[in-house]
Write a structure and sequence with these properties.
Helix content of chain A: over 70%
Radius of gyration of chain A: 20 Å
Largest interface: A-B, 79 and 95 residues
Structural class of chain A: mainly alpha
CATH topology of chain A: Helix Hairpins
Number of domains of chain B: 2
Order of helices and strands of chain B: HHHHHHHH
Structural class of chain B: mainly alpha
Number of domains of chain A: 1
Number of helices of chain B: 8
Order of helices and strands of chain A: HHHHH
Number of strands of chain B: 0
Number of helices of chain A: 5
Strand content of chain A: under 5%
Helix content of chain B: over 70%
Oligomer: heterodimer
Largest sheet of chain B: none
Strand content of chain B: under 5%
Shape of chain A: elongated
Shape of chain B: globular
Chain lengths: 121, 186
Amino acid sequence: MTALTTFLEHYNYFITIFLMVSGLYIVIARGNMIKKLVGLSLFQTSVYLLYVAPGKIIGGTAPIFDRAYTVYSNPLPHVLILTAIVVGVATLALGLALVVRINEAYGTIEEDEIFSADGEI
Amino acid sequence: MELFTNAVLLTLLAIVTVAIARQRSLFGVVILSGIYSFLMASVLIVLDAVDVAMTEASVGAGISTVILLATLHLTKSIEYPKPRNTLLPLFVSVFVGAALVWGTIDLPAFGTADAPIHRHTTPRYISDAQDHRIAPNIVTAVLADYRSFDTMGETAVIFTGGIGVVLLLKGRRRRRPGKTAGEGMS
């Protein structure tokens, strides 16, 4: 019973960890560079959840002042994560631009083929 | 009700993640990551982070999908064929996941109002933002008024990223006519 309550109370964190680990797995296991970058952004997105979930108060409302409400969820993680999202898309764009250039230099975006092409030279 | 919606949306997120990991068509991966971003935005609304949800829906599901599709168009690669050996990555992932689960078990339960995160610093920001009458939205007040220099640093990071993308893709256009026309241009 207690194990079940603990699991339900931490369900958010477990899903967050699952998303994070899946992103890590995709980054390591897949050789395609676009897929790798998608995995990287999965990893990033799980961090948003890790920050925002503890700030939630059950029965609270979004942190916007109104006379009808007194309990607000924590606004500080939201501010941090707003920054993280925008920086995340900047890094994704930079990574994809590098992929485009790599594709022009090697004619492929598969990591294994790029390594073998380098070995031949 | 909040808890139930949250749990359902999180489960859907996990399912979409598995689908992304298994999908072999890159086009499918891009579309699934758009779906993932929209689900994440819904979860963020349930978690009361409305500003973050709006940004995630526009940036994560909008711009990211567009630049991923543009990259697919430029690289002309739609599918990737052969899987690699997945034993080592699986082991690393399971190990990291187990360590993280072990670390999170002691965290306070989800949604409790007396967790340490709500007792320190935050009450000060909330009461100050109310007293100073800056903006009714506390996130805006912190981002634009109390922490505006941090936001300026963020803008500098995006600017640098944008310059990097422009430099990388600009060199490409210059080289391409040189290659097709002959060896003359560098």
